[in-house]
Amino acid sequence: MSKKLKDGVYKAQNGSDKIIYFVHDELVVMQWKYGTFKTTTNFMLGAKWEEPLPEELTHDKFMEGYNQVESW
User: Fold this and answer.
1) pTM of the model
2) Across the beta sheet with 27-32, what order do the strands follow?
3) Which uninterrupted H or E stretch holds 18?
4) Rounded-to-integer distance, Cα 37 and Cα 65, Å
5) Can you tell me the distance from the alpha carbon of 33 to that of 56, in angstroms, rounded to the nearest whole number?
6) What is the pLDDT of residues 5-62, one digit of tens each?
7) Phi-psi region for residue 64, left (φ > 0), alpha (ψ -120 to 50) or beta?
8) How does pLDDT run across 60-71, given as a tens digit for each residue?
9) Rounded to an integer, what distance in angstroms lies between the CA atom of residue 64 and that of residue 70?
10) What does the alpha-carbon distance between residue 60 and residue 50 come to, in Å, rounded to a whole number?
11) Residue 10 neighbours by CB distance under 10 Å
12) What's the pLDDT at 72?
């Protein structure tokens, strides 16, 4: 059983690529130079929590964006 992630912004470095993850209620959106995708915590290797989600990113706004992007 995996530990529940804290909601917020996570960042990881993959070689020269910077990857940003937005986590809300265990749902993950990944922003990378190749695009923005919904993904899972399994792909967050090396990601570290950086900051809380912006206050204006409400649950409804997060879900709206999450539902618009493709899966990784």
Assistant:
1) 0.89
2) 35-39, 27-32, 17-24, 8-14, 48-51
3) strand 17-24
4) 10
5) 24
6) 999 999 998 788 899 999 999 999 999 999 999 999 999 989 999 999 999 999 999 9
7) alpha
8) 999 999 999 999
9) 12
10) 22
11) 21
12) 86
